[in-house]
Design brief:
alpha+beta
Length: 247
């Protein structure tokens, strides 16, 4: 397989499983054993194993040859030997410790970075194109929900409307005004009014009697004459004496 096609297949396989910090270096001036070195990071043992399996399967599908895969037991550092290209898949701590970039990183191949930028731009464009479709689907779903609710409301039995309470007094009727009881006229006033009415029929008016005037002055007591006193005593003497009550 051509080296350019091989490194393209490797980058595609690593990106499919979300590898981090993918680097490809040209090593033709350093060694005659291989022409390219690829270094990528995986966040866990499971991801590093999945990245190695993706590289192996992708290269075989493109018609390439896989020499060996080492380090799958632990998953901390998995090496895929493709003959002309070596792929190192490492966890971040292992990668920072061994620093393979300082050994093989004289000439970095930019093809993988450019391809990643192009693929990310394409993915961004695809996501932007997908947004209107998502909005349209959301709107259609909301309309479908509203339609189903309307159908349920129509099919549900409607409760009879409650009759308003009847009141004995209508709202238009006004309360009767309060009246204070009138006092009955005095008998003397009634009698005088009747007399005046009768006199009016005969043509003569009834005169009211003027009240008697009280005498003004002092009262002088006059002593009884002696003859009257003597006769009063004689009459008292002739009266029989009352019998005394027995004890």
């Amino acid at each position: 397989m051509d080296i350019k096609k091989l490194q393209t297949a490797v980058v595609d396989a690593l990106e499919d499983v979300k590898a981090q910090d993918i680097k490809i270096y040209d090593t033709t001036h350093l060694t005659s054993l291989f022409d390219r070195v690829a270094i990528a990071s995986g966040t866990s043992n499971r991801q590093t194993k999945a990245l190695a399996a993706s590289v192996r399967d992708k290269v075989k599908a493109k018609g390439g040859h896989v020499v060996s895969v080492e380090g799958e037991d632990t998953g901390e550092w998995v090496l895929v030997d493709l003959g002309d290209m070596i792929v190192h898949i490492m966890q971040p701590a292992i990668r920072a410790y061994y620093r393979l970039e300082e050994i093989w990183g004289d000439k970095e191949v930019k093809m993988g970075a450019a391809k990643r930028v192009a693929s990310s731009a394409a993915a961004k464009k695809a996501s932007e194109d997908e947004k209107p479709a998502k909005i349209r689907r959301t709107r259609e779903q909301a309309e479908a929900v509203e339609a189903s609710q309307a159908i349920d409301d129509d099919e549900a039995p409607k409760k009879p409307a409650r009759k308003p309470r009847t009141t004995s007094v209508s709202s238009d009727a006004k309360p009767a005004p309060k009246t204070t009881p009138t006092r009955a006229p005095r008998a003397s006033t009634t009698l005088s009014a009747a007399k005046n009415k009768a006199a009016a029929g005969t043509g003569t008016a009834v005169k009211r009697k003027a009240p008697a005037k009280k005498a003004v002055g002092t009262t002088v007591k006059v002593a009884m004459p002696k003859s009257a006193v003597a006769s009063k005593k004689a009459a008292a003497a002739k009266r029989p004496a009352r019998p005394k009550a027995k004890a």
